[in-house]
Specification:
four-stranded mixed beta sheet, about 425 residues
Length: about 425
C-alpha cells in the first residue's frame, strides 16, 4: 500500500494530486471542473477525489483529501477545455452517438463533452420487436401521426441541444396509458438521468443540483391548479445555459440545464398567458392519450417479458434516436395536434379562444374590431394592448388576419381595423 507521507510523517498532498491527475481524465466545461467517470464527465470532482484518495491511501483524513481536491482544482487551467456540454452527442454503454449524423464512436470517448450515459448499448443491428411496436401503436390509439411523435418524444431526452424548445403535455383521462408510458421512459433512461420535480420546485436552492445535468424532468398527475411563474417555465423550456447550483456542505458550481420537460395530467393547468399566447403555441406539444386500457393485473409481468428485455429496449432506443435525428433535420417535431392546443387555450385564455373562433362574417358585424376588443377585454379583465392582440391573433389564426384600413367620417380619414381571409 502506497502512503503519501514525507519527512516527519507530513502528508504529501501535491504528490497525491499529481497522481490523480495523471491517472484520471479531467476537463472544464464552461470553466467548471469535471472528471471522466463511468463513461461520461461528471461535475462531482470533490466526491470523486475524496473516493480516489481513500483508495490510494486509506490513512488519509478528510482534511488531507480536501487539500488534495483543492490542489487538483488548482491545475484546472491545464485540463482540456469545453465551452459547453456537446449538444448532439449522448453516451451509451458501448460508445457515443452523434444524433446529427447517427455516427457511433467507440474509441477515445474522452474527446467528447458528454455528461450523460444511457444504461444500455446502442445496437444498430437489433432485430425488429413487433411487441414493442404494437404497444407504441396502442399508446398512440393507432393514430400514425401520434405514433411517429411518440418515437420522437422517447428520443427527445437524448438531445442536449434545446433548439426544439418544446415541452410535452401528456393529456387524458385515467387508464389512458400516460403513467405506464412515462414509467417505461424512466426504465429506458435509468434513474440517474431524470428528475421528478413539479415546476414550482425547480428553482429552490438545493433542487437545482438535482435537475441540472438530467436528461428530462417529468411531473406526473398535474392538477388543474395555477402555474405561478410561467415566464420561468418558458425559460426552462428554451434551455438555460447554466445555473449556479450547490449541494449541502459542498462548493457551489455552474451546471448546465438541458432537461426536457414532460407533464402528465388529466386536466390542463392554469397559467397566465395574456400577452404571449403564440409563444406558448410554439413551446407546447400536447398529446392526447385517449386509448382506453382495461385493468390488467398481469401487465407488469407481461411488460417485463415483452418491453423490458435487452433486445426490446435496444430496438426502441435505436428507433427513437433515428426519430429525434429526423426532428433535428427538420427543425421541428413531426406532428402537433392543433385541436389540443385550442382546448388548452380555451382553458387558459378564453378571450383569445373566442377571437380565434370567430369567422370573417362574425367580424363584419363590427365596424371597428378595436371596439370589440375594448368591450371584451373589459369583460374578461384582460390587460393587453390592442396592437399586441392583433400581433398575437395574426400569428395564431390559420385562416384570418386583422388589418388596418381607413374610412371617411365627417370628412376626415380615420384608421379602423377589419378582418379578412389570409
Amino acid at each position: 500500500m502506497h502512503t503519501y507521507r514525507g519527512k516527519n510523517d507530513k502528508f504529501l498532498h501535491y504528490e497525491m494530486a499529481k497522481d490523480i491527475i495523471d491517472q484520471y481524465d479531467f476537463c472544464t466545461i464552461n470553466d467548471t471542473p469535471y472528471i471522466w467517470w463511468d463513461g461520461k464527465y461528471i461535475p462531482d470532482v470533490q466526491d470523486m477525489v475524496n473516493l480516489i484518495g481513500i483508495k490510494l491511501d486509506p490513512t488519509t483524513t478528510k482534511a488531507n483529501r480536501t487539500e488534495v481536491y483543492n490542489t487538483v482544482v488548482g491545475f484546472k487551467s491545464s485540463f482540456k477545455k469545453f465551452a459547453q456540454v456537446d449538444p448532439y452527442k449522448i453516451a451509451f454503454l458501448n460508445g457515443v452517438l452523434d444524433l446529427r449524423t447517427l455516427e457511433f464512436y467507440t474509441d477515445d470517448l474522452q474527446q467528447f463533452a458528454v455528461c450523460n450515459r444511457i444504461p444500455w448499448e446502442y445496437n444498430v443491428n437489433v432485430e425488429d420487436q413487433p411487441q414493442v411496436r404494437e404497444q407504441i401503436k396502442k399508446w398512440a390509439d393507432y393514430d400514425e401521426n401520434v405514433e411517429k411523435l411518440l418515437y420522437q418524444l422517447i428520443g427527445y431526452p437524448m438531445l442536449i441541444n434545446c433548439n426544439l424548445r418544446t415541452m410535452f403535455l401528456l393529456h387524458g383521462s385515467a387508464q389512458g396509458g400516460k403513467t405506464k408510458f412515462l414509467e417505461y421512459i424512466e426504465y429506458l433512461y435509468g434513474v440517474e438521468n431524470y428528475s421528478t420535480f413539479d415546476i414550482d420546485e425547480v428553482n429552490k436552492r438545493f433542487n437545482k443540483a438535482q435537475i441540472c445535468g438530467k436528461l428530462f424532468n417529468y411531473s406526473d398527475d398535474i392538477d388543474a391548479g395555477y402555474i405561478e411563474k410561467p415566464n420561468f417555465l418558458k425559460r426552462l423550456i428554451s434551455g438555460m445555459t447554466s445555473m449556479q447550483v450547490e449541494n449541502k456542505g459542498k462548493d457551489g458550481y455552474k451546471a448546465p440545464f438541458y432537461a426536457k420537460l414532460i407533464m402528465s395530467m388529466n386536466e390542463f393547468p392554469k397559467m397566465k398567458m395574456d400577452s404571449d399566447v403564440s409563444a406558448w403555441e410554439s413551446r407546447l406539444n400536447i398529446i392526447h392519450f385517449k386509448h382506453k386500457f382495461e385493468k390488467n393485473p398481469h401487465y407488469d409481468a407481461w411488460e417485463q417479458e415483452n418491453l423490458k428485455t435487452q433486445n426490446a429496449v435496444e430496438w426502441l432506443l435505436q428507433q427513437s434516436a433515428i426519430a429525434i435525428h429526423n426532428a433535428i433535420e427538420c427543425g421541428d417535431f413531426c406532428y402537433n395536434d392543433d385541436s389540443q392546443f385550442e382546448s388548452f387555450l380555451e382553458n387558459n385564455s378564453p378571450f383569445m379562444h373566442e377571437a380565434l373562433s370567430m369567422s370573417v362574417e362574425n367580424w363584419e358585424d363590427y365596424e371597428d374590431i378595436q371596439n370589440w376588443f375594448e368591450d371584451v377585454s373589459r369583460e374578461y379583465g384582460i390587460n393587453m394592448a390592442f396592437k399586441t392582440f392583433v400581433r398575437q391573433f395574426n400569428k395564431l389564426s390559420k385562416n384570418i388576419e386583422i388589418f388596418r384600413t381607413t374610412k371617411t367620417l365627417y370628412k376626415k380619414r380615420k384608421s379602423i381595423y377589419k378582418a379578412r381571409k389570409k
